[in-house]
TrEMBL record:
Belongs to the IS21/IS1162 putative ATP-binding protein family. It comes from Bradyrhizobium arachidis. Coiled coil: none annotated. Pfam families: IstB_IS21. GO terms for molecular function: ATP binding. Residues 41-173 form the AAA+ ATPase domain. Keywords: ATP-binding, Nucleotide-binding. It comes from the Bacteria. This is ATP-binding protein.
Length: 226
């Protein structure tokens, strides 16, 4: 029943996570988080990294471990969360919505930063973070670094207030690695892996450097036409 009430979008467990494919993740740190002590203390976990590196997998797996440890959990995406709060605000029942969102011992917010939030939505998110501050744990996944959250929330002042509360008691994990989905496509041959003969990508520093060298070695012309 607790698993159903959590609204997980899929069944993901730590046993199924490929730590060897993501060497930037410390398995011991994940096992420590799976013990759920941080939830009891009302702390937060931020999983940061590019799309496809396993953030959602880990968030669901840690949520399942929290349920097994006896904690209530609710999973939602950032867009769904904000849309629900905006709807409640328009219907003058925001306090009721915030009270409901404050009840789970762990609230998982997935995909924060994939779409920028409007200023009003950012302020609603701030109210939620403030309501849960030091009383309920949050696990947030984002494809943006914390330093970029000013653009995510469209208001640097609100972003600073949100980050200040989330980082006060927190565990920040930054995942650096290749996307599982892209890796699978490369193995199947759908995507060609980059090779040395492919040349530098458009707009890269090396391309600009090559253009500069070529320009310096070109003979002077007898004029140009426009």
């Amino acid at each position: 029943m607790a698993l159903k009430l959590a609204h997980f979008p899929a069944v993901k467990e730590l046993a199924g996570f490929d730590f060897e494919a993501q060497p930037s993740i410390d398995p011991k740190q994940i096992r420590d988080l799976a013990a759920s002590r941080w939830i009891a203390n009302g702390e937060n976990v931020l999983l940061l990294g590019p799309p496809g590196v396993g953030k959602t997998h880990l968030s669901i797996a840690l949520g399942r471990e929290a349920i097994l440890a006896g904690y209530t959990v609710q999973f939602t995406t950032a867009t769904t969360l904000v849309a629900g709060m905006a709807k409640a605000h328009g219907e003058r029942r925001l306090d009721e919505k915030l009270l409901a969102l404050a009840k789970p011992k762990l609230l998982i917010v997935d995909e924060l930063g994939y779409l920028p939030l409007e200023p009003d939505a950012a302020r609603l998110f701030f109210q939620l973070v403030s309501r849960r501050y030091e009383t309920g744990a949050m696990l947030i996944t984002s494809n943006r670094s914390v330093a970029e959250w000013g653009t995510v929330f469209a208001d640097p002042v609100v972003a600073t207030a949100i980050v200040d509360r989330l980082l006060h008691h927190s565990h920040v994990l930054t995942i650096r690695g290749d996307s599982y989905r892209l890796r699978a496509k490369r193995k199947s041959g759908l995507i060609k892996p980059p090779t040395a003969g492919d040349g530098p990508p458009v707009g890269s520093a090396s391309l600009r450097r090559e253009a500069t060298i070529k320009r310096h070695h070109e003979p002077d012309g007898g004029g140009s036409s426009s």
